[in-house]
Amino acid sequence: MRESRVVVTFHTTTEAMAWERACKQAGLPGRLIAMPVQISAECGLVWLITPQDREDLLGHAKRLRLGYKDVVELE
Amino acid sequence: MIYFDQAATSYPKPPEVAEAMMQALSYAGNSGRGSHELSLAASRLIFEARCELADFFGAEDPSRIAFTANATESLNLALFGSLNPGDHVITTETEHNSVLRPLYRLEEEGVEVTFLPADGQGVVDFSSLDDYVRANTKVFVLTHASNVTGNLADIETVEEFCRRHQLILIIDAAQTAGFYPYHLKSSAIDILCFTGHKALYGPQGIGGIYVRPGLFLRPLKIGGSGIQTFSKTHPIQMPEALESGTLNVPGIAGLLAGVRYVQAKGLDELRREEELTSYFYNKVREVPGVQVYGDFSDSNRCPIVALNIGGLESSFVSQVLADEYGICTRPGGHCAPLLHIALGTENTGAVRFSFSHMNTKEELDFALQALHDLTDRDWGGFL
């Protein structure tokens, strides 16, 4: 069975790049992948994490004032 | 060859600019078009460049900087994106055609335009700006430095005026980006239009625009953005709102290298060109028949000296300097027609010498001697 995943979506590619840079600098988990079709078939990047990392990551994002669009759990 | 056409494009470029462009060609894909390593490499490079440009210009948010092809595209974007029929815009006679021609077209579409006059030295008097304000005044567009005379506009006075009347201030920084230390966060500049290939030492074909947070510009071009594929409208979020189609990644890589070069050198060191300008200005006035244009009472100016020699045509002088002395200058009207009319040079143009920190005093002496030689020669009644 495929493990559930969580992705953070962004308004722009620039927002995604700012997120990636901040997470790398802070040693936070995750990586950029293409927008999963389960969310949308449109172009774009999302930040992939495990469900276990969700709360910790979003806490850091709030503290770092990082912009994002949504957080989606994929089954 | 001696290159005194730095106001047209800086030369030579620092070697790291070409190296960065070559590297980008070898590892960068198309930004925002996938999640593979080459696409991400391009996106990271572009983001890096936005961050460093924002830092360089003292802007608070890298996403407010969009890349364009040059200052002309940025100015078109700023003017067509902010003005509507019925609006009033204030500008000056020192502007380049990159401002004038968009304004003339906008005028045909119902925008009212006021041109502040330049005097015989090409200087604009900003002391009575309140006289020009109307109820529908929306924008003030200003070249920060004349590309003909090198004179800097009194930007502090214009900023104060725009703040007081809540006008959108658009600055044409074609000559000043990389030369003048901007602090956009604390200034009243709402839109800064810059090119990469002059005092930022980047390649041609890359420039940018800064747009203050909260200000929306109607884009000139819309299309592929790498996001919101199924929307019928172009994204409104910056910077993608103003960027459509594939970005010039090698150009951005070169611009980033140029900005790093400028930052490593420091504006103070780069501005040793002011000494060269002052030296050349003082010496060239000793050449018989020379007339220099512009106000040199303040050394805080761009490194430009425009002149004519007696009755010699500017194009002829520039051609002889190139052919016989290997000296590169720019003759003619410099795409600044209203300023040339103010200077009285609409029929002759002028020979523009423009310098960078890479020029030397020896090169200036060689050019000065060449100008002396020119005036000593018999040009068959020219002089």
Number of strands of chain A: 4
Strand order within the widest sheet of chain B?
A: 2-8-7-6-5-3-4
What's the domain count of chain B? 2
Main beta-sheet annotation of chain A: 4 strands, antiparallel
- The CA-CA distance between the termini of chain B, in Å, is 27 Å
Order of helices and strands of chain A: EHEEHE
Q: For the record, give the distance between the C-alpha atoms at the N and C termini of chain A, rounded to a whole number.
A: 10 Å
Structural class of chain A: alpha+beta
In this structure, how is the largest beta sheet of chain B organized? 7 strands, mixed
Which fold name is given in CATH as the topology of the largest domain in chain B?
Aspartate Aminotransferase, domain 2
**Of all protein chain pairs, which has the greatest interface, and how many residues does each chain bring to it?**
A-B, 20 and 24 residues
Shape of chain B: globular
